[in-house]
Amino acid sequence: YTYALRAEVGLPTVTQDGKAVLLLANASTVAEVQEGLAWGAAGLGLLRTELLFMERPDLPSEEEQLALYAAVGAVMPGLPITVRTLDVGGDKYLEAFPMPHEENPFLGWRGVRIGLSRPELLLTQMRALLRAGAHADIRIMIPMVTTIDEVRQARALLQQAMAELEAEGVEYNHTPQLGVMIEVPAAALNAEALAREADFFSLGTNDLTQYTLACDRGNSRIASLYQPLDPAILRLIGMTCAAAHRHGRMVTVCGELGGDPQATPILLGLGVDELSCGPNSLPLVRAAIRAITSSDATKLAERALACANAAEVQALLI
Ligand code: PEP
Ligand code: MG
User: Fold this and answer.
1) Where on the tree of life does the source sit, at the highest rank (predicted)?
2) How far is CA 19 from CA 114, 204, 208, 269, 290, in A?
3) Residue 187: CA count within 13 A, CB half-sphere
């Protein structure tokens, strides 16, 4: 099927009734960005930056980070590029500074919590992103946000980084967008308040599923509990979209669910504006977007929200 879908790479990602849905790629390396572009991505919805920081004894310098972000920008000139700030902790460790053993690492020192307690780390990354943003449409996204205070602190750091670059006479993006990953249930439940402070939302459905269903995403013993289509999660997605739209913010899905063509109609029906997925999923999700109408998607989402469990939702999709 992929061969046949290759011919559709250039076709617009619009629904049958003409609603445009931005289709973006997830990537961790420049090679993956190139692959995403080859499969017709309209930009990046998630550039993971962990690889740059891991398996080395030191932290990457601002210049080294700038080189990667600029290289990514050069592959996708003019297209939106959403870069997630460092998201280690949980099961990902850094050698550059001690990350003590924790009883519950996924509920511990992770994502933006590390960035805010090590502000020089986040500041350096933001400076590099602002500098790369002088020549590319680079947006900054904060992982693992739980409270509005984290967004405010991240924004203050971003402003500090801009003030520093201004004082140094270095070129930078004067109007950076700062977005928030919605992957903790509290963030979805407080989306209304977060939407006032964030420029955009991106749903991390992998962690949102893990935290909502209290189910370790990597534990095979409870794998049957890990159901991204559970109505509880769909409800959180719908609430997030409604709150975002009341404040004129866009919502992307960048978790695995964004790359599942079976889920595409439900996600669009719940109000998701943009989908981001691994390069290999792009053709299937493009075909799924092009196959549906907005009103069918809305009706499907309503029926899914009335379901009692993921199996009932799944049954609607066949
Ligand atoms: C997610 O949680 O859905 C996500 C996109 O982030 P990661 O998979 O990198 O934790
Ligand atoms: Mg995540």
Assistant:
1) Bacteria
2) 39, 23, 27, 12, 9
3) 29
- Taking the CA of residue 254 as reference, the ligand 1 atom at the shortest distance is 5
Q: Ligand 1 pocket, 258 CB below 6 A?
A: no
Instruction: With 0.95 as the threshold, say if the pTM is over it.
Output: yes
DSSP single-letter state for residue 276: E
Which ligand neighbours the alpha carbon of 26 most closely?
Answer: 1
Q: For this structure, is 254 an active site residue?
A: yes
Question: Position 225: which residue type?
Answer: L
- The Cα-based distances of 233 to 192, 209, 229, 295 in angstroms read 17, 7, 7, 21
CB-based neighbours (< 5 A) of ligand 2, an ion: 183, 204, 207
| Radius of gyration of the chain from its Cα atoms, rounded to whole angstroms | 19
pLDDT string in tens for the chain (318-residue length): 567 778 889 899 999 999 999 999 999 999 999 999 999 999 999 999 999 999 899 999 999 999 999 999 999 999 999 999 999 999 899 999 888 999 999 999 999 999 999 999 999 999 999 999 999 999 999 999 999 999 999 999 999 999 999 999 999 999 999 999 999 999 999 999 999 999 999 999 999 999 999 999 999 999 999 999 999 999 999 999 999 999 999 999 999 999 999 999 999 999 999 999 999 999 999 999 999 999 999 999 999 999 999 999 999 997
User: DSSP code of 172?
Assistant: -
- Name which residue sits closest to atom 8 of ligand 1, judged by CA: 206
| Local structure of 184: helix, strand or coil | coil
To 5 degrees, how large is the angle CA 275–CA 50–CA 114?
105
